[in-house]
Amino acid sequence: MPAVEWSSDVQFLKGVGPVRSRALNRLGIRTAGDLLRHYPRRWLDRSSVTSIGAAKPGDDVTIAGEVLTSGGRPTQRGRAMQTISVGDVSGVLFCIWFGQSYLLKQFRNGTKVLISGTIQVHQGRKQIVHPDYEILDNEGPGLHTGRLVPVYPLTSGIGQHWLRQRIHESLDLLEPSLIDPLPAALRRERDLCSLGEALRSIHFPDDAAARDRARRRLAHDEIFLLQLAMGLRRRGHGDVAGIRLEAPGDLTTRLVANLPFELTGAQRRVLAEILRDMRGGRSMHRLVQGDVGSGKTLVALIAALFVIEQGLQAVLMAPTEVLARQHGRAVASLCAGLDVSVATLTGSTPAAERRALLRGAADGEIDLLVGTHALIQDEVHLPRLGLAIVDEQHRFGVRQRSRAGQGGEGPAPHVLVMSATPIPRSLALTLCGDLDLSFIDELPAGRQPITTELLGVKDDDRIHAAVRAAATAGRQVYVVYPVIEESEGQDLKAAEAEYDLLRTGPLQGLEVGLLHGRMKAKDKHAVMDSFTRGELQVLVATTVVEVGVDVPNATLMVIHHPDRFGLAQLHQLRGRVGRGEHASSCFLVSDRWLAAETRERLLMFCATGDGFRLAEEDLRRRGPGDVMGVRQHGAPAFRLANPLRDVELVELARTDARAILDADPMFRRPDHRALGIMLQREYGRLLLGTVG
Ligand code: ADP
Ligand code: MG
Fold first, then answer.
1. Beta carbon of 547 within 6 Å of any ligand 1 atom
2. I need a labelling partner for 87 at 20 to 30 A (CA). Which of 161, 472, 587, 676 fits?
3. Is the CB of residue 267 below 6 angstroms from any atom belonging to ligand 1?
4. pLDDT > 80? residue 39
């Protein structure tokens, strides 16, 4: 038989064969190495032995004894039943199986055994039905009892006992030839155990401490490899000569001088980070994270002006047309008097204007082009593009993002991504290893906190009164209904019906508008514009207002069916109010009975205004597994690592990955070679041949 290697087909391992191997494939196990990566879901603590005399009914115990008798007989219903009795100095225990006569061969009188399971008492006798057992011989500790025993995810045709044995055998076979990809010096410095020890102890730990050490090492590797892969990608697309910005001109200073407010400290710091990047000579790839309302758009605009005052062009891309127009308007008014030529390109730009605009972009006449992602990426040619800004990027679409940087010739333009949803710092550091990160962790001064309440239909009168009160005081109100795609028609009807009802009933006399995704772009813009101008007092809308819409005069947000939204989405919606100096509120209105868990989630939302904390909470509830769509982008999902918990590992891995990539990006050093191979094996698809 040829030597078994990490990549040997699992089918040819002893005791496996074609049928079992198909079942293992269903668990994602194809090679001998995959078996070792099939980590336990939990461990049963069977490390301490109880005496039979002390074991009480209902206890889950492990006992050690000697087989006294064994035999099989049919039950009254005709099934074969196997029984052995086991004794220790304190008493006798009966072990019972049904339909497993082959078991009896193993038990002779006097055989020493360990038995684990739940004690029952039947006709005055202590027994365990279908116990886990281990025949004790001289070959060291067992696998199934008398220790911390691994419990694996299974599939039909694969049993715990069998899988434990296969994994144990593979460990013995593979361990001698295992190469630890982590350089020994790094392992020592970071106090990580060896890969061999980690794999053995994650499956068959001597004690809880050994298991935790193993978990730490293996989780470290998952994070570390992802960091390396991200780092390589970054060097592939980003670590190229970038347009170098010289000392700033006066556009930005003039803009800042004209603002009716001061930049926050966080805005200044992030702008300094951006400027440092753009002056560094490397192309910038930076993600700006900031809570809703923290003033990301202004940061983006100032970054654009840094570039424009050097005679270069910038684009600002938004995910929706509503947002692109809003940005276009805001930017144009902020730039008034600055002699910057700003143009907005959306799907509803008339053909003639569009042609002129594309020509202006290509001629270099337009300094700042605002528009939707899709349009700008597909149609526009900007010869002097210095900076591409992607606003309100929702998903971490790595591919999408890197496209934003293309479009010009010569040195690569800088790329700035503004995130729509804050994600916890450690997760951002893990997932966005190919981006530099900036955090706007401060809201503009004078913002009033938003009071959030969970209400029911019985509160209708109160809600309508609040809407009226806000409108009478000169403020504005959003009333939002969810639209779920599958039942879009119905939901829309609900929003439309509600709109008619409100307008003619409780809100009679107020200026009420309706906005939803199915409306023609022209009508949508007309409604949005009149809301922005303050002509409409109430906007009944579906979630088109979710992201980015900025009407500082709006102070009340009423969200119907809040249970249909995720926390991040609710936070985005709530973020449409509380943008000015007026106190704002948000009502979550549910017309149905809410499950305890949903209710708890919504109440937590009411009590928390901090987007980063909500994101953390959301992840805690849903698990980080694939929340951010990592897998979708070709990266293996984490098995053991949890960036929310493993903050320390994330920081270490990020630092170490950078150091290695700086010193030896092709993994040529002997102590880096194994790491390069490992990386190629795990991330080959994502890297597409970046490693040699
Ligand atoms: P977001 O981070 O959600 O994209 P915006 O950029 O839309 O936030 O900013 C929210 C509001 O705050 C806008 O009306 C903007 O003009 C205003 N704003 C931005 N920076 C400041 C500041 N430093 N002080 C006061 N208001 C600010
Ligand atoms: Mg914004």
1. no
2. 161
3. yes
4. yes
